[in-house]
């Protein structure tokens, strides 16, 4: 679909212009603040979350919310479902997409693996923002081993 | 990572809930919201609206130089023979394809190198009610001007592209002006498709 292409081009341009390395980690190596791209993604994720049908906002279980992200949100945004969802049942989830739309135009395999995290920052923020609207604080990080597959690790923060 | 491999969850994932209502925002919303977040970020980074406008235009230019290839690949167009044809294609094919709107085209001068695209609403601004306070000269869609300019340059057509009217600023329509910078006769031999 052509309008998804325009988003992809815009995203690429945003990465080129706005990406900056992570700010210094706080004590214990935790990230203390979002990068510019992550905070933009967060804002978009929040608003996407606010535009959801009312019934989806009544999720009780964490797992339901994560399933929603993997299926409905991912389909709405990237036109495919997440390929797998794993959890340790203690608040950590790993979402795997074997052909992540924003990585497909880059390369296939091990080339540009170091560059790939820049292209995931916005989406990490997006997941975080949507979770926030659904009532969950989270920390989302992304990992790439071979393009275009990537994993998003979501750690739900206990209040 | 301490996460167990639990194949049963993948089964949960693939189990369809057929009764679930189809979800969420269309992808167009994603584009509009992302663009809004970008403009908001640039307004934070730059004090003056002119700088924001310029930066958006520059980013648009970068997008346009690459978007044109995507456009040419999707639309099997025959060669254009006039600026008027080019402008009509931008309005009736490209805008339609990428933004879902079709501006009307007017020609502004007898030498037929100045055109306007007229729109009922400013694209990408569907969720914007009004410009932020103190930002009245922000051209919210400067990105589009840059995209058109970049795309035209890649097909060897130099042009100035600016917003002449903007509904977000209270004008009755949104008008994008395209002024082609060289005479058609000089360009005839340099068309590449």
UniProtKB/TrEMBL annotation, chain A:
Record bears the keyword Transport: yes
Signal peptide location: none
CDD domains registered for this protein in UniProt: TRAPPC6A_Trs33 (cd14944)
Sorted UniProt keywords: Endoplasmic reticulum, ER-Golgi transport, Golgi apparatus, Phosphoprotein, Transport
UniProt xrefs under InterPro entries: NO_sig/Golgi_transp_ligand-bd, TRAPP_component, TRAPPC6/Trs33
GO CC field: cis-Golgi network; endoplasmic reticulum; trans-Golgi network; TRAPP complex
Subcellular location per the Swiss-Prot or TrEMBL entry: Endoplasmic reticulum; Golgi apparatus, cis-Golgi network
SUPFAM superfamilies xref list: Ligand-binding domain in the NO signalling and Golgi transport (SSF111126)
Subunit relationships: Part of the multisubunit transport protein particle (TRAPP) complex. Heterodimer with TRAPPC3. The heterodimer TRAPPC3-TRAPPC6A interacts with TRAPPC2L. Interacts with TRAPPC2L.
Listed PANTHER family: TRAFFICKING PROTEIN PARTICLE COMPLEX SUBUNIT 6A, TRAFFICKING PROTEIN PARTICLE COMPLEX SUBUNIT 6B
Family, similarity comment: Belongs to the TRAPP small subunits family. BET3 subfamily.
The protein's name: Trafficking protein particle complex subunit 6A
Automatic annotation (TrEMBL), chain B:
Subcellular location(s) per record: Endoplasmic reticulum; Golgi apparatus, cis-Golgi network
Sorted UniProt keywords: Endoplasmic reticulum, ER-Golgi transport, Golgi apparatus, Lipoprotein, Palmitate, Transport
InterPro entries listed in its UniProt record: Bet3, NO_sig/Golgi_transp_ligand-bd, TRAPP_component
Pfam family, one: TRAPP
Principal location listed in the UniProt entry: endoplasmic reticulum
Cellular-component GO terms for this entry: endoplasmic reticulum; Golgi apparatus; TRAPP complex
A biological-process GO annotation: Golgi vesicle transport
SUPFAM superfamilies: Ligand-binding domain in the NO signalling and Golgi transport
Subunit record text: Homodimer. Component of the multisubunit TRAPP (transport protein particle) complex, which includes at least TRAPPC2, TRAPPC2L, TRAPPC3, TRAPPC3L, TRAPPC4, TRAPPC5, TRAPPC8, TRAPPC9, TRAPPC10, TRAPPC11 and TRAPPC12.
Role: May play a role in vesicular transport from endoplasmic reticulum to Golgi.
Family under the similarity heading: Belongs to the TRAPP small subunits family. BET3 subfamily.
Record protein name field: Trafficking protein particle complex subunit
Organism: Octodon degus
């Amino acid at each position: 679909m052509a309008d998804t292409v325009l988003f992809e081009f815009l995203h690429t341009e945003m990465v080129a212009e706005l990406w900056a390395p992570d700010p210094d980690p706080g004590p214990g190596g935790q990230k203390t603040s979002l990068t510019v791209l992550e905070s933009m993604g967060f804002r978009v994720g929040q608003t996407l979350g606010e535009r959801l049908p009312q019934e989806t906002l009544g999720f009780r279980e964490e797992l339901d919310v994560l399933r929603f992200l993997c299926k409905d949100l991912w389909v709405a945004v990237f036109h495919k479902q997440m390929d797998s969802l794993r959890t340790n049942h203690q608040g950590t989830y790993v979402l795997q997409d074997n052909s992540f739309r924003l990585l497909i135009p880059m390369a296939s395999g091990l080339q540009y693996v170091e560059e790939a995290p820049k292209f995931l920052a916005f989406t990490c923020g997006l997941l975080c923002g949507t979770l926030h609207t659904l009532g969950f604080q989270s920390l989302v990080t992304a990992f790439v081993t071979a393009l275009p597959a990537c994993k998003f690790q979501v750690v739900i923060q206990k209040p | 990572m301490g996460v167990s491999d639990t194949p049963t969850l993948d089964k949960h994932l693939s189990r369809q809930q057929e009764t679930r209502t189809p979800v969420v925002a269309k992808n167009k919303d994603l584009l509009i919201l992302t663009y809004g977040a970008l403009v908001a970020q640039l307004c934070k980074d730059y004090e003056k609206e002119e700088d924001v406008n310029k930066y958006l235009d520059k980013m648009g230019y970068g997008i346009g130089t690459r978007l044109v290839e995507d456009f040419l690949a999707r639309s099997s167009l025959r060669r254009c023979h006039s600026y008027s044809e080019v402008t009509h294609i931008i309005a009736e094919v490209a805008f339609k394809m990428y933004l879902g709107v079709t501006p009307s085209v007017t020609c502004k001068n007898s030498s037929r190198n100045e055109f306007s695209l007229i729109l009922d609403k400013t694209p990408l601004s569907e969720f914007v009610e009004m410009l932020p306070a103190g930002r009245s000269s922000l051209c919210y869609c400067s990105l589009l001007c840059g995209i058109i300019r970049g795309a035209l340059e890649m097909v060897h057509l130099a042009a100035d592209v600016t917003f002449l009217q903007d509904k977000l600023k209270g004008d009755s329509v949104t008008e994008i002006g395209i002024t082609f910078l060289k005479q058609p006769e000089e360009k005839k031999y340099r068309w590449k498709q």
